[in-house]
Design goal:
Strand order of the largest sheet: 4-5-7-8
Shape: elongated
Strand content: 25-35%
Number of helices: 1
Radius of gyration: 25 Å
Number of strands: 10
Order of helices and strands: EEHEEEEEEEE
Low-confidence stretches: 140-173
Length: 173
């Protein structure tokens, strides 16, 4: 699929909007529609300037194959320290909490980190709120696959609701 676009702005302005390439009438109509939507008015009498033309080709790619690692049995997750963390907490009331400081490199697949906790890595920090858990069940950097996906701890009674398991989408009891 190829997307052909025109970057158009009013003469004297610096706000170019990107619209589909077409005839002059189509470009003008698309620009005025986008401009009115964004700024709620038009500048009648001002000339239009084509600032740039862009072409984007989109082709299907191969899906990366993520390695699957066997989950290790549950264990006490190694913590480097206990630190103070200010957060909304279980009931949304801001308070100070003693939080486990966990380093991502110390975790292995299958580890579950109960909040409050701070999971530190070289290029990211994951905050696990009180009453939440994070599961280290996926390898890879956080941008590709979050190594620790926060979820609500399964429990009954908090405002009469039952939390659901994020791993299998079933209701926990």
């Amino acid at each position: 699929m190829v997307h052909r676009r025109v970057h158009v702005r009013y003469e004297g302005s610096d706000s170019a909007l990107i619209v589909p390439l077409g005839s002059l009438t189509e470009i003008t109509a698309a620009f005025e529609h986008a401009y009115r939507q964004r700024f709620a008015f038009l500048m009648h009498g001002k000339g239009l300037v084509v600032e740039a033309v862009s072409v984007e080709a989109v082709v299907p790619g191969d899906a990366p194959v993520e390695p699957r690692h066997a989950l290790h049995p549950a264990r006490e997750v190694p913590r480097r320290s206990t630190v103070r963390m200010y957060t909304g907490g279980v009931d949304g009331v801001p308070a100070w909490h003693d939080a486990a400081l966990v380093v991502r490199e110390d975790l292995r697949p299958g580890d579950v980190i109960a909040g409050p906790a701070i999971i530190a890595e070289k290029n990211a920090t994951t905050i696990v709120e009180p009453g939440w858990e994070a599961a280290a069940d996926r390898p890879g950097p956080p941008a590709a696959q979050p190594p620790c996906a926060p979820r609500r701890a399964a429990r009954r009674g908090h405002h009469g609701r039952t939390r659901c398991c994020w791993r299998c989408s079933t209701t926990c009891s």
